[in-house]
C-alpha cells in the first residue's frame, strides 16, 4: 500500500475515491483483491433485479425462507442472550421470545430440508456448482450441531435429560472428552459463539457462490429446445 | 378465559396433549415419535405442493420477451 506524503495537504475521502483506480497502484494487493472481487461479482450480479424464467416456481423459494428464518433465529438469540434464562423461563415476554427462537429454528430446518430435496432432484451440483452443493450440505450438518447445542442450553429438565442421554452416544464415538455434552459452559459457548459464526459464514459463502454461478438450469430446459441453453437464452422474469 | 380461547385450547389440547409420555412408532430398528413423523410427512407434502402449485409471475411491460 502506498503511504501518502505526510507533508502534503490532507486528502479527503472524495480524493481517495478518485485515486482508487490509478494504473500505478494496480499491482498492490488491495487493488488486486478489489478488482478480482468486482470482476467475479459485479453489483448487478450480486443483487440482481431479474431471475431466469425457470426460477418461477415455489420450489425455489425455500432457500430464501431458510435465510429469513436464520435472521429471526439470530435476532431472537441476541435478545435471549441479553436477558438470560431467568427471563426466558419466567416472564411472558421471555417465553414468547424463547418460543419465537424455537419455532424459527423449526422453520429454518424444515425449509432447509425442502430446499435440499429440491436441489438434490435438480442435481444442482451441475455446471461447476459442486462447491455450492457441498457448502449447503456442510451448512446443514453444522446447523444440526447448532440446534443440538441449543437444546442442551435451555437450562431446564429437558436439556438435562437430552445431555445425559446424548453423552453415551457421543462417548461411543470417542469424542466425548473434546465435546462434553454434560459441560454446560462448553455447550452454551458452542451454541452462541462458535456454531452461529460457522453457520452464518457458510450460508454467506453459499449465497455468494449461488450468485457467482447463477441458479442451476432445469433438466427439461435443454431437452425441450435443442441447441438452446436456458442459462444463455436470455429468458427472464422479474424477481 | 375468552370462549374462543377455550374452544381452541380444548381442540388443540386434545390433539396435542403433552402431559403424558410421547407416543412412538416402532419400525424394525427405527423408533420415531409421532411428532417427528408428522413433521416429515408435512415436509413431503410441502415439497410436492411447491412443485405442483403454479407460481404467479410479473408480466413484462411493453417487452417482447
Beta-strand portion of chain A reads under 5%
Helix content of chain A: 55-70%
Strand order of the largest sheet of chain B: 1-2
What spatial form of chain A do the alpha-carbon principal axes imply? globular
Q: Quote the distance from N terminus to C terminus of chain A.
A: 41 Å
Secondary structure category of chain B: alpha+beta
- Tell me the number of helical segments of chain A per DSSP (H or I, 4 or more residues long): 10
Structural class of chain A: mainly alpha
Low-confidence stretches of chain B: none
> Helicity range of the residues of chain B?
40-55%
Write down the overall mean pLDDT of chain A. Answer: 87
Report the uncertain regions of chain A.
Answer: 225-239
Count the beta strands of chain B.
2
Number of strands of chain A: 2
Q: Pair with the most extensive interface?
A: A-B, 17 and 14 residues
Radius of gyration from the alpha-carbon trace of chain A, in angstroms: 24 Å
Q: What is the arithmetic mean of pLDDT of chain B?
A: 81
Query: Major sheet of chain A, described briefly?
Result: 2 strands, antiparallel
Structural description of this entry:
- The complex is a heterodimer of chains A (239) and B (65).
- The model of chain A is unreliable at 225-239 (pLDDT under 50).
- Among the domains of chain A are: 56-122; 123-213.
- Chain A is mainly alpha-helical and 239 residues long.
- Chain A contains ten helices and two strands.
- Helix content of chain B is 49%, strand content 12%.
- Chain B is built from two helices and two strands, in the order αββα.
- Chain B has helices spanning 3-15, 34-52, and strands spanning 24-27, 30-33.
- In chain B, strands 1-2 form a two-stranded antiparallel sheet.
- In chain B, a hairpin with a 2-residue loop joins β1 and β2.
- The longest helix of chain B has 19 residues, at 34-52.
